[in-house]
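Sequence only, no structure available. Ideas?
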Amino acid sequence: MQIEGTVALVTGANRGIGAAYVRALLDGGAAKVYAAARDPKRVTIEDARVVPLALDVTDPGQVAAAAAQASDVALVISNAGIGRGTTALDDGAIEAARDELEVNYFGVLHVARAFAPVLKANGGGALVNMLSVVSWLHVPGMGTYAASKAAAWAATNALRVQLRGQGTQVVGVHVGYVDTDLTAGVTDPKSDPHEIAANVVAGIAAGAEEILADEASEQVKSVLSNDLATLYPGLQERYDAAQAAAAA
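Reply:
I predicted one. Tokens follow.
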């Protein structure tokens, strides 16, 4: 879809990749960008085209109110997400998994359900869901987070089929580590959020339905057809080394 002149909405827009999406859309010529966040006062981008909007994606009533207010939207980027950094066997893993599912999966569904009719009324537009390489390949330290992103990936694929008839472009975005607050403790290479946002906006404009927004996502996607015995030994070695270092 065309970015120039469009009206867009970004969830989780107050920081990280969300704020980068707002800037990339403005750079692409968007006419208006609803910058949605739990606390809209934390949206700090100064541009007359930016409209801060209160939105907690775990609250269906608030999502419905946002859809009513932003009834002119043609592009929705469902970016809000959380990560608790837990393995499936950690104390508190069940609570962490529920928190992550509420935002990363059910939040995506709430936004899609509320905004699909809005997009239809405005010609179809596009719905973009922010996913991850761990939608495909799970690592112990991100076990519960990965499960929520895998669920969101499945929902994205289903929504793509369901919304095609109304002309809505449904896009799944996969990334590795991105340099945001969420990955502050990660020492592995991380992508620049502004580069990720620019790549995604360009992909939306080109009509893509799946965007591999960085080198990590391209690498992981390229090996997914390999046998599990090929995929997981390297992850096992890294996990064992981290456990040994922690115990030392």
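The beta strands are 7-10, 32-37, 50-54, 75-78, 126-130, 169-174, 210-212.
Hope that gets you unstuck.
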